[in-house]
Amino acid sequence: MNIGEISYTNIIPLYFYLDRERLMDQGATITQAVPSRVNALMEKQLVDIGGISSFSYGKNAENYSLVPDLSVSSFGKVNSIFLFSKFKIEELDGKKIALTSSSETSVALLKIILDRFYGVEVTYKTETPDFEAMLNAYDACLLIGDDAINAYRKRGSYHVYDLGEIWYQQTGLPMIFAVMAYRNELETEQGALLSYVGRSMIESKERCQRENFVPVIERVITEHGGTFQFWNSYFNGLNYQFSGEHEKGLNLYFQLAVECGLLKTMPSIIKYSYK
Ligand SMILES: C=C(O[C@@H]1C=C(C(=O)O)C=C[C@H]1O)C(=O)O
Fold first, then answer.
1. What role does it play (predicted)?
2. Confidence (pLDDT) at 34
3. Which positions ≥6 away from 95 have C-beta within 8 Å?
4. Are 83 and 141 spatial neighbours (Cβ–Cβ below 8 Å)?
5. pLDDT band for position 274 (50/70/90)?
6. Whose CA is nearest to atom 14 of ligand 1?
7. Which domains does the chain have, with CATH numbers?
């Protein structure tokens, strides 16, 4: 079994307390990459289970199911998914926007927001995430994850829009950025290990929450810098559950993606039941 691990700080609580040695002993490997790469590896069947963009689940729902009670979501500001713009969002009609090549969920979310909530028509191009280079060549750029956190520190006088906040203001529902999904074959091929991994991720998340994310924050500061206060409010602003509210939010996102022509059909949300 190959487990995909998004290489951003936001998903760390689901993986922090995994017993990696025990997983290795059971024949599991872990591959770290940005979301769009984990999504692609899972489509190619090179990753079997992992945190992936919720949009990628939507595209592949016939072949994937969800590990219950896990997600990377926000009820409002997410603080790491930003549109940086030279113009106010209402004034973006006819402008050029650079999209980070690392994301799938937020790329579709931006398209939904501009099309359905603001009624502006823009042209998009995908670029490697580089704040300065993107804004040298475009009117606005979308960055996510650690790239967005770093760019925010250099935002200067650009207009900055948090896509989690816009989604929540417009819909009153949480935005689900990542889900924990697995390829359906895994259930018959490696059911026991699948259960173990799912349960371990839930335990990891719950322990991080009980500890108020303190050990996670300490590790993140040594790797990325920043203050305790910043990372404390970052992790506490994220939500790692998958409740009925989350399912409503995800279904609305999928429905709008279908209406905007970003998804071909409305995906069904299927959840694993532990044996
Ligand atoms: C909160 C974030 O969520 C991430 C955003 C993703 C996307 O846009 O495809 C995918 C996985 C999430 O971990 C972030 O990266 O800032």
1. Catalyzes the dehydration of chorismate into 3-[(1-carboxyvinyl)oxy]benzoate, a step in the biosynthesis of menaquinone (MK, vitamin K2).
2. 96
3. 87, 122, 123, 139, 140
4. yes
5. confident
6. 145
7. 2-73+175-259 (3.40.190.10), 81-171 (3.40.190.10)
From CA 114, how far away is CA 123, in angstroms rounded?
Answer: 11
Which candidate, 244, 248, 225, 228, places its Cα nearest to that of 236? 228
What's the complex ipTM?
0.96
Q: E strand or H helix at 64, and its extent? A: strand 64-74
Instruction: Tell me how far the alpha carbon of residue 52 lies from the centroid of ligand 1, in angstroms.
Output: 8
Contact between 14 and 180 under an 8 Å Cβ cutoff? The reply is: yes
- Best probe residue, ligand 1, of 9, 14, 41, 53 (max atoms within 8 Å of C-beta): 53
Q: How far apart are CA 105 and CA 36, in angstroms?
A: 9
Kindly report, residue by residue over 98-140, the tens digit of the pLDDT: 999 999 999 999 999 999 999 999 999 999 999 999 999 999 9
Spatial CA neighbour of 108 closest among 269, 267, 241:
267
How large is the average pLDDT for residues 237-247? 98
Q: How many other CB atoms are there within 10 angstroms of residue 155's CB atom?
A: 12
Type of residue numbered 211: E
Nearest ligand 1 atom to the CA of 78 is 1
Protein residues whose CB sits closer than 6 Å to any atom of ligand 1: 6, 8, 10-11, 35, 53, 72, 78, 80-81, 103-106, 144-145, 148, 177-178
Ligand 1 centroid to residue 162 C-alpha, Å: 13
Kindly give the number of the ligand 1 atom that is closest to the alpha carbon of 238: 1
Residue 76 CA, ligand 1 centroid: distance in Å = 14
Task: Give 219's contacts (C-beta < 8 A, 6+ positions apart).
Answer: 12, 16
Q: How many residues does the chain have?
A: 275
Task: Estimate to the nearest angstrom the gap between the alpha carbon of 96 and the chain centroid.
Answer: 24
Closest residue by Cα to atom 2, ligand 1, is: 145
